[in-house]
Design a protein that fits this description.
By secondary structure, the chain is an alpha/beta fold. It is built from seven helices and 13 strands.
Length: about 230
């Protein structure tokens, strides 16, 4: 939370809304909301959405694919995501959706496990981390590896490891400008945080989701920052 706040900054009047893509149970979402942000949480897991709704007002959490939300384009001052690049089916698709949702000159803030030092390849024997190079480059979803604890959550839900280059690649485009990159940890960093600003006048991603009405396709109507909680 501290790293997200550092990268996100303080909410400004008229620009205090952000969406938390892949918000999970809403722990970070709820904490940031307490600092004055108006937050919309989105997650594809219905059980996690229900957990989040017990911690947040119901109208602030929606059940939807974080890479394909029903939210209107350009409607948020910022987009936040945490610990998601190892879990979502497509990290690049999530970044594309962030670009659709954030206003020009708005920010995308991400904090997650450092791909160089955390993952199936990184066997942690505190204070030493043994890196297994042959395990580093595979981005397939996997349940095992020298860096995964036996009986841990990853042996049940799996993990998709991305290299550092894979993590940064979707943001090294004309659309984004990375203006902050932070490594965090007591010795070898365990977290990586970044802030990317969407360039004004540059956007090449998909447009607003369309809803069929008879034979005519119409864009979803504009909504306020506090979204309904319908499932999608």
């Amino acid at each position: 939370v501290g790293l997200v706040r550092q990268l996100l900054g303080v909410p400004r009047p008229g620009a205090a809304e952000f969406v938390d893509l892949a918000c999970g149970p809403g722990l970070i979402t709820a904490t940031l909301a307490a600092y004055g942000w108006r937050v919309v949480g989105v997650d594809a897991s219905r059980p996690l959405v229900e957990m989040a709704r017990r911690q947040l007002p119901v109208d602030q959490v929606i059940h939807a694919d974080a890479a394909n939300t029903p939210l209107p384009p350009g409607s948020f001052a910022a987009v936040v995501s945490t610990y998601s690049h190892t879990d979502v089916p497509s990290w690049s698709a999530l970044v594309t959706e962030a670009g659709r949702l954030v206003r020009p000159a708005g920010a995308f803030v991400y904090v997650g496990p450092h791909p160089a030092f955390v993952g199936p390849h990184a066997e942690r024997q505190d204070p030493v981390v043994r890196l297994h190079g042959s395990e580093y480059a595979s981005d397939r979803r996997r349940l095992d590896g020298p860096g995964l604890s036996r009986g841990g959550v990853r042996q049940h839900v799996g993990v998709r490891h991305l290299t550092l280059a894979m993590l940064l690649a979707p943001l090294l485009t004309r659309e984004w400008r990375i203006d902050a990159l932070v490594e965090h940890g007591p010795e070898l960093p365990t977290l990586i945080g970044l802030r990317a600003v969407r360039r004004v006048g540059v956007y090449a991603g998909p447009q607003a989701p369309l809803r069929r009405r008879g034979a005519v396709l119409t864009a979803l109507p504009s909504r306020s920052g506090r979204c309904g909680s319908g499932s999608h």
